[in-house]
């Protein structure tokens, strides 16, 4: 069997060119006679992999010099604790709740201080992004926290919240490198790479230098202290070496295609054909308010559970995999990250058209 179109929300599709290159280098990386998996993280060869990965990311995102780039582990979920441990000096923070990931982050932070949930879209199943232009930001909040692209619900902040001078911290796991970002608007940007960049096991954190200090909550473990990793240039302990190597290749792949402006263009073009189809379909509906739609994760439903199940099963048989919606939402979700080719989305839309024609007469929706 050949490769399928993989619409998984994560771990997710990676560029075929990158996988092929990695396969070629599997037994002998660049004349070292060994795989990247087998080499010391203190070796010259790995040092070069790490420093060029960081440089390539800095170039792609135009990361200012006063920001550190850290390659960490523990998944995005570990950041839910690291963020309050490192930044909640006054033991207060504001969270905007736009889905499960923001909710989990807020619940975790609550172990370390007082959390103000200053806005939420839970009243309508997180199907929109609340108006964040004039929120009541807490006077003593150390930061304002958002999840910028909501992987499960398919919403995206198109405009950043007005934090009234407070530091903004953003989880970008599922929109990392999908379009340009203005890094200096944030105190910290972070994400697990398994959505849009590389293999599971790596988390990238981009943090403004002055926020990285020894002044962390008492009892914060060494491994959960940003300063420890920043001082050691992500080599305090053994980093997720092979994952970083693949991330580096993906950065180069994006650069070779034209960088983040080009990614944005491609992602808009891909998302448009699916949204356009949903907007005229009788059978399938998108679940998100139009102005808040994500370019990366596109949930949709038929309104009939059996029909959803039939669709998912037949799509799989046609080589369109992992279209089942998140277990807490149901329905379908197509994750169309950077590495999903335009042809993949085209195939999905063609399949949906055909499915609608074949099934519309048989069911009431
Ligand atoms: C997947 C995801 C997470 C959780 O990532 P883990 O690496 O599994 O901890 C957090 N936030 C967002 C936005 C995600 O998409």
Describe the structure.
- With 365 residues, the protein is an alpha/beta fold.
- It has 9 helices and 14 strands.
- The strands form 4 sheets. The protein has a 7-stranded mixed beta sheet. A 3-stranded antiparallel beta sheet has the order 11-12-14, with helices on one face. Strands 1-13 form a two-stranded parallel ribbon.
- Helix 4 links the parallel strand 3 and strand 4 (114-120).
- Helix 3 (75-87) crosses helix 4 and helix 7 (259-280) packs parallel to helix 9 (342-359).
- It starts with a strand and ends in a 6-residue tail after the last helix.
- The model has no long low-confidence stretch (mean pLDDT 97).
- The site of pyridoxal-5'-phosphate has 12 residues, from helix 3.
In short:
With 365 residues, this protein is α/β, with parallel strands linked by helices. 35% of the residues lie in helices and 16% in strands. Strand 3 (92-97), helix 4 and strand 4 (114-120) form a beta-alpha-beta unit.
Topology:
Layout: E1 5-6, H1 16-24, H2 44-61, E2 67-72, H3 75-87, E3 92-97, H4 100-109, E4 114-120, E5 144-147, E6 149-150, E7 155-156, E8 168-171, E9 188-192, E10 203-208, H5 226-231, H6 241-257, H7 259-280, E11 285-286, E12 297-301, H8 305-317, E13 320-321, E14 332-335, H9 342-359
Parallel strand pairs: 1-13, 3-4, 3-5, 5-8, 8-9
Antiparallel strand pairs: 2-10, 6-7, 9-10, 11-12, 12-14
Helix pairs in contact: 1-6, 2-6, 3-4, 6-7, 7-9
The structure holds pyridoxal-5'-phosphate.
């Amino acid at each position: 069997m050949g490769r399928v179109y993989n619409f998984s929300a994560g771990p997710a599709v990676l560029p075929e060119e990158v996988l092929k290159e990695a396969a070629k280098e599997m037994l002998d990386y660049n004349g070292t006679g060994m795989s990247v998996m087998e080499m010391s993280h203190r070796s010259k060869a790995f040092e070069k992999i790490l420093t060029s990965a960081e440089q390539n990311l800095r170039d792609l995102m135009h990361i200012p010099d006063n920001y550190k780039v850290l390659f960490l582990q523990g998944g995005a979920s570990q950041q839910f604790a690291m963020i309050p441990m490192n930044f909640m000096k006054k033991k207060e923070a504001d969270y905007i709740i736009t889905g499960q990931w923001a909710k989990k982050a807020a619940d975790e932070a609550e172990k370390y201080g007082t959390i103000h949930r200053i806005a939420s879209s839970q009243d309508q199943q997180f199907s929109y992004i609340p108006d964040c232009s004039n929120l009541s930001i807490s006077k003593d909040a150390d930061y304002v926290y958002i999840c910028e692209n909501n992987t499960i619900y398919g919403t995206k902040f198109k405009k950043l919240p007005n934090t009234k001078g407070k530091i903004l911290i953003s989880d970008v796991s599922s929109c990392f490198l999908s379009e340009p970002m203005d890094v200096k608007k944030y105190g910290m940007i972070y994400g697990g790479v398994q959505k849009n960049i590389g293999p599971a096991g790596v988390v990238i954190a981009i943090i403004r230098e002055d926020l990285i200090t020894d002044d962390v909550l008492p009892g914060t473990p060494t491994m959960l202290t940003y300063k420890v990793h920043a001082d050691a240039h992500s080599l305090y302990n053994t980093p997720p070496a092979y994952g970083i190597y693949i991330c580096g290749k993906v950065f180069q792949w994006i650069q070779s295609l034209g960088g983040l402006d080009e990614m944005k263009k491609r992602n808009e073009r891909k998302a448009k054909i699916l949204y356009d189809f949903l907007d005229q379909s009788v059978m399938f509906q998108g679940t998100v308010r139009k102005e808040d739609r994500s370019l990366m994760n596109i949930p949709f439903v038929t309104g009939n559970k059996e029909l959803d199940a039939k669709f998912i099963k037949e799509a799989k048989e046609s080589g369109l995999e992992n279209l089942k919606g998140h277990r807490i939402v149901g329905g379908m979700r197509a994750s169309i990250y950077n590495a999903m080719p335009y042809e993949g989305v085209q195939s999905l839309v063609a399949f949906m058209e055909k499915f609608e024609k074949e099934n519309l007469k048989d069911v009431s929706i």
